[in-house]
């Protein structure tokens, strides 16, 4: 069984090595997709629609594919499933992004990101201040990103507001790290609650990347979900 994997906000695929091997031993064919701007180079800022069109091209020859999405990859997969409700046979989310948070803290974070993004080639003092702010608000990925991918991240966060999980009908397995600090467990619980056909699996002692730290457990859950 082919399993198309949409990785999260990362620039290499090392964390997927062990689980890919385990999935192969279980008789599956994991296919890691290189996401533009991350594991394949791109100089443009990507919107959610850009990513949906890209994914549609990647899956154009597939009949009812099974897609695994981690973090930002989950966000892309959810947006795709909303636009093309009959495309996926099954969706597997691992600590997925995509849940909009209209809180004062989130708005403050976005405001800081916007202001800091406007500071061009800062002098050392401002650069140190910028790095400190990114650390405080939990935006290390944003700090390390190129200018076009910083804009891409802002587009992704804004796209969450247009995602209506209640309209996504594809059978979904939701896998979540108990101690995730990036997309906390309450997000996973909310996503599983809002999706009409979802089942939540919590990985004890795991954080944001249970596919890397608990590869055997996650592979078993994926295998059981596919065979159910």
Spell out the key features of this protein.
228 residues, single chain, alpha/beta, 46% helix, globular, 6 strands
Topology:
Blueprint: E1 2-6, H1 17-25, E2 29-33, H2 48-58, E3 66-70, H3 72-83, E4 90-94, H4 104-117, H5 124-136, H6 140-144, H7 147-159, E5 172-177, H8 185-194, E6 198-203, H9 210-213, H10 215-227
Helix pairs in contact: 1-10, 2-3
Provide a descriptive summary of the structure in words.
There is one protein chain. This protein is α/β, with parallel strands linked by helices and 228 residues long. The protein folds into 2 domains: 2-99 and 163-227, 3-Layer(aba) Sandwich (Rossmann fold); 104-153, no CATH class. The chain contains 10 helices and 6 strands. It has a 6-stranded parallel β-sheet, sandwiched between helices. The longest helix is centred in the middle third of the chain and has 14 residues, at 104-117.
Structural category is: alpha/beta
* Strand element count: 6
> Strand share of the residues?
5-15%
Number of helices: 10
Give start-end ranges of low-pLDDT stretches.
Answer: 133-138
Architecture of the largest domain in CATH? 3-Layer(aba) Sandwich
**Topology-level CATH name of the largest domain:** Rossmann fold
Largest sheet: number of strands, sense, barrel closure:
6 strands, parallel
């Amino acid at each position: 069984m082919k399993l198309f994997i949409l990785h999260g906000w990362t620039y290499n695929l090392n964390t997927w090595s062990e689980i890919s091997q385990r999935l192969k031993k279980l008789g599956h064919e994991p296919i890691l997709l290189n996401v533009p701007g991350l594991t394949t180079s791109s100089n443009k800022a990507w919107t959610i629609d850009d990513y949906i069109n890209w994914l549609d091209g990647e899956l154009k020859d597939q009949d009812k594919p099974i897609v695994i999405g981690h973090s930002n990859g989950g966000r892309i997969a959810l947006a795709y499933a909303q636009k093309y409700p009959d495309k996926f046979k099954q969706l597997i989310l691992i600590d997925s992004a995509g849940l909009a948070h209209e809180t004062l803290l989130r708005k403050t974070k976005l405001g800081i990101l916007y202001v800091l993004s406007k500071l061009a080639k800062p002098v050392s003092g401002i650069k140190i201040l910028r790095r400190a702010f990114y650390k405080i608000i939990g935006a290390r990925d944003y700090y390390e990103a190129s200018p076009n991918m910083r804009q891409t991240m802002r587009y992704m966060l804004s796209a969450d507001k247009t995602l209506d999980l209640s309209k996504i009908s594809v059978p979904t397995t939701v896998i979540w790290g108990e101690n995730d600090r990036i997309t906390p467990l309450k997000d996973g619980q909310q996503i599983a609650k809002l999706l009409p056909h979802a089942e939540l699996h919590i990985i004890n002692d795991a954080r944001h990347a249970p596919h890397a730290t608990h590869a055997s457990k996650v592979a078993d859950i994926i295998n059981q979900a596919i065979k159910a």
